[in-house]
Amino acid sequence: MGQCIAGNAKINQTFKEKIMGLKIYNSLTKTKQDFVPLRSGMVGMYVCGPTVYGPSHVGHARTYVNFDVVRRYLEFLGYKVKYVQNITDVGHLVGDGDNGDDKITKQAKLENTDPYAISYKYECMYFDAMDKLNILRPTISPRATGFIPEMIDMVQTLINKGYAYVTSKGNVYFRVRKYAKYGQLSNRKLDEAKSGERILVASDKENPEDFALWKTAEGGHIMKWNSPWGVGYPGWHLECSVMSKKFLGETFDIHGGGLDNIFPHHESEFAQSEVANGKPFVRYFMHNNLITVNGTKMGKSMGNFVTLDDLFTRHSPMAVRYFILNYHYRSVVDFNEAEITKAEDQLNKIAEIYKKVCDNASNMMTMNLTDADQAYQKFLAAMDEDFNTPLAISELLKAVKYANSAVTGGKVGELAHIKTLLDSMFNILGLDLSKKGELVADNAQSQDNLLDLVADIRTKLRAEKNYALSDYIRDKLAELGVSSKDKKV
Ligand SMILES: [Zn+2]
Q1: Mean pLDDT of the 19-23 span
Q2: Ligand 1 center to residue 212 CA distance, Å?
Q3: What pTM does this model have?
Q4: Cβ of 256: how many Cβ atoms within 10 Å?
């Protein structure tokens, strides 16, 4: 679309001044609060990143598109945002608790390779998928394995303060019952947690709800480090406490993640950080809701797991992004490909009108734009209300409708200003219209087309009774693991 690619729009300052002020629903206080950052003009934001042991899926798309919009809107408001998002490459055990194999080590065994090769492979795939969704890269993307000495220091501090204990097996656990506020984020009472988790309790814990800070590396565990308590590896929750402190300080503004991170992950991060640092941990906790597939929970064991590589062969990443943003981040997204197709059609219409705006915009500007300006202001007001993207999109559509009527009505003097408004809205939502219809990772489809072509050639050869060449192609295909059947000619 040439010059029509959404750029950084310069918006009249008066628009920003008219904004009522950003409000964020804080999972910690369970209320919507005015957003006031710790340091004027700056926002420190930490979002739990992926555990890199498998292909990225629609759950990742949802979480990181949602927080990308949070970051983009904060930047639009003029904040300098430091966005830290970790890569979990050690310590996340199967089942999220303190028992079982490390997820990455387990996958390494399945793929018959090194755990470090697994985490690097899936980290690359993750960023590749996020780039396609037009998600801005984090300011800092630290890997857990890079911060083991800092983790050991924090564990030692917790032991020194009497909130952690070393067992005879060399494991170190956080003494949950000593921390009275445990459960404040997830609204769990200790007794409930106790009965729920009892089956998985490791035998050397003082209490079943205690969580691991450091675990002894048993057997052939490859990812392991020396520590004052023996050779082992860190508990999963520890990394986020350590890396957020390292890059954002002991107290920071926004901590985000999926709803499934609240317990035990964020609850445990919270406890160990506040005890170790003696300071409040986070000012605003934000949690995006989950994805269901046709009404049921998505999961590998449910057989309804949708990877992004697969999805992007049928729908453009930009349509997936637009589909996600049609839901508020705190609502459940029911994943449905028919709805993504509808979103794609709508995005194509928006792009068509936007192109007309670009093609017809004139330097002769008139300022009679109450409808478009009103839609723009309502768009910003919706974003101010806890990032209400579906409401914001409904205002975007009104502005697009007005843009269309301005084009058809020949009001070319208005188009340059309308383009500025549209660009601003596209930027905040991260919609890059130049990529609206692009399918990616389309290898499977092109491979199918190639095989159809080869089958056609064989059919023609046999029609000409050239059986030798036809059989030669069939045998070579078989060597490549492709079976081909002869059609009647
Ligand atoms: Zn985390």
Answers
A1: 80
A2: 14
A3: 0.85
A4: 26
